[in-house]
Amino acid sequence: MSARAVCFDLLSALLDSWSVWDGVAASLGSPELGRAWRRRYLELTSTVGRYRPHLEVVAEAATDTGLPAEAAAGLEGAREGLRPWPDVLPALATLEVPTAVVTNCSLALGRRAVACVGAPFTVVVTAEEAGAYKPDPAPYRLACERLGLHPWEIASVAGSPFDAGGALACGFQVTWVNRLGQPPPPDASAIRIVPSLSGWTQ
Question: CB-based contacts of 119: which residues, under 8 Å, 6+ apart?
Fold first, then answer.
């Protein structure tokens, strides 16, 4: 790998948050709405730009998909169940460069979620700290500042098509871990798309 650092999405690329959203929806009697709720949240954060309280956006996504706004509080309580995807720790163990996390959440949740990965990171950037949600450039730029590197020196491992497009626009070397087979973003020809992190560094 030619990059001097690697920047990861946290709640999709590294952690299986989809199962947590599914579980909360199921606890409310609507298991079929978990994925739609999560996707709506991704859509909202991709367009909201400047930071709004994380739980507020989660609640809006819930009501937009037919779940009660109180689902957001249930999700917050269930975050302790976050676990890394099986390929994550082996992939992280192969890296010999600084690693960073750039995540679309609050500072408090970012700290808790990073601890769930079970591996150290050189830099952690949350949307709350950056004042904006990805794909706004602010979180990516803050990661570059803290790493002391230019975007083109950093490999970005995105967890959603919105994140992949945002990282590419900022000049990162982008890989999108498309774990759920989502449609690719526009101009995806410059993005490496893989189903998992197994063998990703080769």
Answer: 88, 89, 92, 93, 99
What domain range is 187 assigned to? 5-16+82-194
142 and 90 inside one domain: yes
Counted domains in the chain: 2
3-class SS letters over 67-132: CCCCHHHHHHHHHHHCCECCCHHHHHHCCCCCEEEEECCCHHHHHHHHHHHCCCCCEEEEHHHHCE
DSSP 3-state of 12: coil
Contact 29, 46 (CB under 8 A): no
Is there a contact between 80 and 102 (Cβ–Cβ < 8 Å)?
Answer: no
For residues 119 and 31, what is the distance between their CA atoms, to the nearest angstrom? 31
Task: Report whether 113 contacts 82 (CB < 8 A).
Answer: yes
Which residues does 74 contact at the CB level (< 8 Å), separation at least 6?
24, 27, 28
63 and 142 belong to one structural domain: no
**pLDDT tens string 14-60:** 999 999 999 999 999 999 999 999 999 999 999 987 999 999 999 99
Q: How many CB atoms lie within 10 A of CB 66?
A: 12
